[in-house]
Amino acid sequence: MNIKKLLLLPISLVFSAAGCAGIGPNASYYMGTTSFHYDPSYSPYMVKLNGSEIGGGGGGMNTSLVKIGPQTITWKDAKTGEIHSAKNQVIITKEQLKGKKYLAAHLYPDDTVEVTTSNNWPNPTEKGSKWLNQLKK
After folding, report:
1. What percent of the chain has pLDDT over 70?
2. CA dist., res. 35 & res. 104, Å (int)
3. Is it the case that residue 29 has pLDDT exceeding 90?
4. Hey, which of 37, 46, 107, 129 has its CA 20 to 30 A from 78?
5. What are residue 88's phi and psi, to 5 degrees?
6. What keyword terms does UniProt attach to this protein (predicted)?
7. Nearest Cα to 34, choosing from 48, 17, 55?
8. Are 13 and 34 in contact (CB under 8 A)?
9. pLDDT for the residue 2
10. How far, in Å, CA of 72 to CA of 51, rounded?
11. In this predicted model, what pLDDT tens digit does every residue of 68-97 receive, in sequence order?
C-alpha cells in the first residue's frame, strides 16, 4: 500500500462517519426509500421526496438522500397525470432517522402522508390497510 492510500484512509473514514452521524443543522442520511398507496381509484407513480423519486408500492425501493426537517412529497396519478402533494406538513426528525435503514411514505386517500422508518423492509400501516379495505367494499 502506498503512502497516499494510507493517508486517504483515515480522512475518508472521518468524512463517512460524519455523514452517518448526521452532523449539522441540515443533516441528511442515505436510506432505502419506498411508498405505499391506499386509494384503489388510481395508481400513483413518480412519488418524490423533495424532488427525488423514491420507490413505490412497497416492492420498489430506491436509495435516497433523506434530510431532516420539513419535506415536500408529491406523486402523479398514472391515468391522468394529475399531480398530488401532501396536504399535511411532513417533518422528519433526526430521531426518526438515526440508526434506521428504510423510510416509507404512506399516501392516504385524503392526500395526507405519513412517514415511517424501520430497520426491516417496510410494511403498510394499519391505518392505511383499514382505509383500503373500506374503499374496496
Report:
1. 79
2. 5
3. yes
4. 129
5. -100, 160
6. Signal
7. 55
8. no
9. 53
10. 8
11. 999 999 999 999 999 999 999 999 999 999
CA 31 to CA 51: how far, in whole Å?
Answer: 16
Report the C-alpha gap between 99 and 4 in whole angstroms: 32
How many residues are present in the chain? 137
In the chain, beta strands by DSSP E = 28-37, 44-49, 52-53, 62-67, 69-71, 73-77, 83-85, 90-92, 102-107, 113-118
User: What's the pTM value of the predicted model, to 2 decimals?
Assistant: 0.79
Cβ–Cβ under 8 Å, residues 71 and 115: yes
* Three cell numbers, residue 75: 406523486
Kindly provide the b/e burial profile for residues 87-125, where b requires at least 16 CB atoms within 10 angstroms of the residue's own CB: eeebebeeeebeebebbbbbbbbeeebbbbbeeeebebb
3-class state of residue 64 by DSSP = strand
Q: Cα(10)–Cα(46) distance, rounded to whole angstroms?
A: 39
| pLDDT at residue 27 greater than cutoff 50 | yes
Q: How much is the CA Rg of the chain, to the nearest whole Å?
A: 18
